[in-house]
Design goal:
Strand content: 5-15%
Oligomer: single chain
Radius of gyration: 57 Å
Largest sheet: 5 strands, antiparallel
Number of strands: 14
Strand order of the largest sheet: 4-5-6-7-8
Shape: elongated
Structural class: alpha+beta
Helix content: 40-55%
Distance between the termini: 134 Å
Length: 717
């Protein structure tokens, strides 16, 4: 099964012992060929870096033009920029005994997280400064190299021989990656060129780390080592390539480290560069889905390349054309001065001068025999050499200033104050302006150091000597569990937003000048910025006496504060009085409104009584109207019947009935007769039986039309 084979390969100390010779030869040749491809991709960068490094190192070459021994001065623009950068950056990375700072995340009610972070900070700082050989010295060298070349690497690994972490500074020509990659994490190949002596190879063979190969078959390499071919102890050129290979033959390439002897092509070692915990399987656990490789290299970058390529720019590449032009102009001025000072020309062959060569020295005159003054001037012609050009001199100054701006080298950053008694805030502003370009580089460097500290943290979590850790910390709580990455992060102690001691000191001075700041705390912060040990700070700044009166400046501020508070209180009371007055006026208006509302309500009640009375009177009027109608109808009918009876008596025939029938009044119904005199109110003709009387209808109930017109009597028959 491929997974079982993969796990076997991962546990092997040297996978090359498990492979046949043919496969090893193919792998060795592949490593060499692909290294040459990567080397060609960065050839242009390496060429200009080499030229810039020669100028930075002030390498002297004797010139033969325009004459032998002509001026060949190299202006130290690149060197000055690199020295200034390293001198400014180095104290920020290593601040006394502090290098690493552990930061916690989340709540810490009992303070245990803070104690753990403090232990990790102290231990890792001790490792880098005391336990890991050469880390501090290599850091100083790294910063100088970085400023010149632009890209520098450092390799971190746990040494089984030293049984401790090792950090190895790698020159830029020793680490080969393709210039088209975006980052080391995504690179398919990282090749480390090693110069290894025969004895070192034999040691590793006997330890079982390298394949057992006769050392005589491994020819030393002289091509790029710089050693004398006749040197019997010339080192071998070894390629240690971090790459991907499919050794378990499952179609997925795993990360390995392949060590190859360049001249012979022999594979010395193959080892995995991943742990079992970094293998991710498919859901059925039958295939490998992903493997996260261990990263050994940390890349430091100065200024990213504008074209997006991997290798960055340093002062050697950025300032090389400018520095070369400055050198040319400076040497031309020097040569012109030499020609102007040491004049030469032509002498007529007829001019006789005693002795051989002319002697030139102050106060000495050569004798010319038998020659007058006019003849001497006519027989000697000086070459018309001109003095050094003022235009070239001004151009030289302009180019130097431009170079200093690019290199971030200014007077204020070199410790020179602009004027005497400059305020701290002014100095801080000047420093901040001068560090505009440098701050970005400072943050990139700190990001690289953080990546390096993460690698050290990971090595401690895997290989920590618990006894050493407990003894050094002298804390019973110290254990290997401290290096669990949960809720904790390690980073450089340097502040990414504060990139120089001058900037930090100016900030603390500006804080001390504020009138409302506690002077004791401000003084302690200033002494801490001066890197005074904490024990001495406590002695220099004792705890203040709580019963001591404040200083006069503070008393003055307190008096002004009290006066301002009293004025504010007086103003507040005046506003409150006005508010109370307005509140009382509001309540008076509310009372008046309530009284008007009561009167209105009483008026409404009187209106209701009048309406009820009018309604009652109207009902009575309607009743009387109905009674009058009924009585009128009854009387009309009785009069008609009485007249009819009288006619019947007077005229026995009945013809008159038809004649008077049309004058017969309507008969009164039983309902009309029964309602007369009852409690009900029969409706008048043309009126509703129960009309609603609203306040607007009050006039209808008080005689202005309607039921009040009941005096009209229906016409009689």
């Amino acid at each position: 099964m491929s997974i079982d084979k993969l796990l076997k390969l991962q546990r092997s100390d040297n996978i090359a012992d498990l492979l046949d010779e043919t496969e090893l030869n193919k792998i060795g040749q592949k490593v060499i060929d692909e290294t040459e491809i990567d080397e060609k991709s960065r050839a242009a960068w390496m060429e200009i870096v080499s030229k810039g490094m020669d100028i930075a190192k002030q390498v002297y070459d004797e010139k033969t033009t325009p004459w032998r021994g002509a001026a060949n001065v190299k202006f130290p623009l690149i060197a000055n920029g690199a020295i200034t950068f390293a001198a400014r950056e180095y104290p920020q990375i290593i601040r006394g005994e502090k290098v690493v700072e552990a930061a916690i995340s989340g709540k810490d009610p009992d303070g245990s997280k803070a104690e753990r972070a403090n232990r990790i900070s102290k231990f890792m700082s001790w490792q880098l400064l005391r336990d890991i050989p050469g880390w501090e010295l290599d850091t100083d060298r790294l910063l100088h190299m970085l400023a010149v070349v632009g890209t520098v690497f450092r390799k971190a690994y746990f040494s089984p021989i030293l049984t401790k972490p090792v950090f190895e500074l790698c020159a830029p020509d020793k680490i080969i990656v393709n210039n088209k990659i975006q980052s080391l994490e995504t690179a398919r190949r990282i090749t480390h060129k090693l110069d290894m002596y025969s004895n070192d190879i034999v040691e590793r063979m006997r330890m079982g780390l390298y394949c057992d190969i006769e050392i005589d078959k491994l020819r030393p390499g002289y091509e790029n080592t710089g050693y004398d071919p006749l040197d019997p102890d010339a080192p071998h050129e070894i390629y240690e390539q971090h790459r991907y290979l499919d050794l378990d033959e499952d179609g997925y390439q795993e990360p390995y480290i392949v060590t190859v002897h360049k001249n012979s092509g022999k594979v010395l070692r193959i080892v995995s560069r991943f742990s079992v915990n970094n293998i991710q399987y498919t859901s059925d656990n039958k295939k490998v889905k992903c493997i996260v490789p261990d990263q050994y290299f940390t890349d430091f970058h100065f200024i990213p390349a504008p074209d997006g390529s991997f290798y960055s720019l340093g002062f050697g590449t950025l300032l090389y054309p400018l520095n070369r032009s400055i050198n040319t102009i400076m040497n031309q001025l020097l040569d012109a001065g030499t020609l102007s000072n040491m004049q030469s020309g032509l002498i007529s062959s007829g001019l006789r001068i005693k002795g051989g060569e002319l002697k030139v020295e102050p106060g000495y005159f050569n004798k010319a025999e038998g020659v007058g003054r006019s003849d001497l001037q006519n027989n000697v012609m000086l070459f018309p050499f001109r003095e050094p050009s003022r235009v070239l001199y001004e151009l030289l100054g302009l180019m130097i200033e431009v170079g200093k701006e690019l290199a971030s080298v200014s007077d204020i950053l070199q410790g020179q104050m602009p004027t005497q008694n400059s305020p701290a805030t002014t100095v801080l502003a000047l420093i901040k302006q001068g560090l505009t370009q440098y701050n970005a580089i400072h943050k990139r460097v700190l990001n690289a150091f953080k990546s390096e500290f993460d690698k050290l943290f990971l090595m401690n979590s895997r290989n920590l000597d618990s006894v050493k850790y407990l003894t050094l910390m002298d804390d019973p709580q110290a254990s290997k569990e401290d290096f669990d990455p949960t809720n904790l992060d390690v980073r450089p102690v340097a502040d990414p937003n504060m990139s120089s001691d001058a900037q930090r000191l100016a900030r603390e001075q500006a804080i001390m000048q504020l009138p409302t700041v506690d002077p004791v705390i401000a003084t302690k912060r200033y002494l801490d910025a001066l890197e005074v040990p904490s024990q001495e700070i406590e002695k220099l700044v004792p705890a203040p006496d709580p019963n001591a009166p404040p200083p006069p400046e503070v008393q003055k501020i307190m008096a002004e504060t009290k006066k301002a508070a009293a004025e504010a209180t007086s103003t507040m009371l005046e506003h409150k009085a006005k508010a109370v007055e307005l509140e009382m006026m509001t309540r008076e208006q509310q009372l008046k409104a309530a009284e008007l509302d009561m009167k209105l309500r009483e008026g409404h009640a009187q209106v209701d009584v009048l309406i009820a009375t009018a309604q009652n009177l109207r009902a009575q009027a309607m009743k009387a109207w109905n009674e009058a109608n009924a009585v009128g109808k009854k009387l009309q009918l009785e009069a008609y019947m009485e007249a009819l009876d009288k006619l019947d008596n007077e005229n026995p025939q009945s013809e008159h009935r038809e004649a008077v029938e049309m004058f017969k009044p309507p008969e009164v119904s039983e309902n009309e007769i029964s309602t007369v005199g009852s409690s009900g109110s029969p409706s008048m003709e043309g009126e509703p039986s129960n009309p609603e009387i609203l306040p607007a209808d009050i006039g209808a109930a008080t005689g202005n039309g309607g039921p009040a017109d009941i005096g009209s009597v229906p016409p009689q028959a």
